[in-house]
Each structure stands twice: as C-alpha cells, then as structure tokens.
Write a structure and sequence with these properties.
Radius of gyration: 21 Å
Order of helices and strands: HHHHHH
Structural class: mainly alpha
Shape: elongated
Keywords: Membrane, Transmembrane, Transmembrane helix
Distance between the termini: 31 Å
InterPro entries: DUF599
Number of domains: 1
Pfam family, one: DUF599
Length: about 170
C-alpha cells in the first residue's frame, strides 16, 4: 500500500481512537465523576469555593530535517497542506479554549474577592470555576491532539502509534 493509501486508512483510524477515548471519558465523568481526575478536581474546586466564601464571610477578606525528509515520499502539495492545516486547527482550537479558561479564572478571581453583600452565591462561583477548568482541560487535550498530527508529517504509521500511546497516557 502506498503512502496516500496509508494516510486514507490510518488517519481516520487514529482520529476514531481519539474520539472513542474522549466519548468514553465524557461518559465516565458523567456517570462516575470520582473515578476521573476531572471529576475529582471539580469536586475539590467546589469545596474550595465553599471554603473561600465561608472564610471571607467570617473575617471580611479573602487571600489572594530537510524538506525532503519532512514529507517522506508524500510529494503532493495538497497532502502536506492538509497535514499542516490540521496542526494549525488544533493549535488555534487549543488557544481558543485556553483563552476562555483564563477568562473564567479571571472572573472567579474577581468575584471571590467581592464583599459578601455584592457577591453572587457560592454555587455561581463554583459553576464559573468549573467552566474555566473544563476549558483548560479541553485546551490541553486539543494540544495533545496536535502532537500526533506532527508525526503524521513523517507518515501515517507513526501517527497511529502516537495516538495509541497518547490514549494510553491519557
């Protein structure tokens, strides 16, 4: 099978592996949140927000190679363009998610220090804090997704191997 044939077979296989993992992870978070790091962290953030709001209510304050080697036989400009565009999309998506995480964390930082009378409920702070965390986690996963795309430049076999290793790692 030639390079383009492998690309057409192994790239969707690699993406399917990542999609299956993330669907499994979402289901696991929804059904058994204490068995995932994301779920445990959400619970801990909820406790932290509660502690910060109770503490601040009590004392009135809170604490603060060469080009030839690079393409490895895939000489079509379209093939290389698709690979580079895929990397770019992953990075752009990761950046977008991380910017949103910073936005939500910034809101929590401000809201947690508002005097008790003007402050929204701890449940609202918890929701905002967890949204920031979910965006941060999504940004990291988008960044992780981009790494196998880099290896795809060197061939589809290395990309699939990297995706399998990444799912085991995650």
């Amino acid at each position: 099978m030639n390079q383009q044939g492998l690309d057409c077979v192994l790239m969707p296989a690699g993406l399917t592996i990542m999609l299956a993992y993330h669907l499994w992870l979402l289901r696991r978070i929804a059904k058994h949140p204490t068995k995932t790091v994301i779920g445990v962290n959400a619970i801990n953030r909820r406790h932290w927000v509660h502690t910060m709001t109770v503490a601040s209510a009590g004392n009135g304050s809170s604490s603060k190679h060469s080009r030839q080697d690079l393409v490895l036989g895939d000489r079509s400009k379209l093939g290389l363009s698709v690979k580079l565009f895929s990397i770019l999309v992953c990075f752009a998506f990761a950046l977008l998610l991380n910017i949103e995480a910073v936005r939500y964390y910034s809101h929590v930082r401000i809201l947690i220090n508002v005097p008790l009378r003007g402050r929204r409920s701890p449940a609202h702070l918890d929701t905002v804090m967890n949204k920031g965390s979910y965006f941060w986690s999504g940004g990291l996963h988008a960044f992780y997704l981009s790494l196998p795309f880099f290896l795809w430049i060197f061939g589809p076999i290395s990309m699939v191997i990297r995706r399998l290793l990444l799912v085991c790692f995650l």
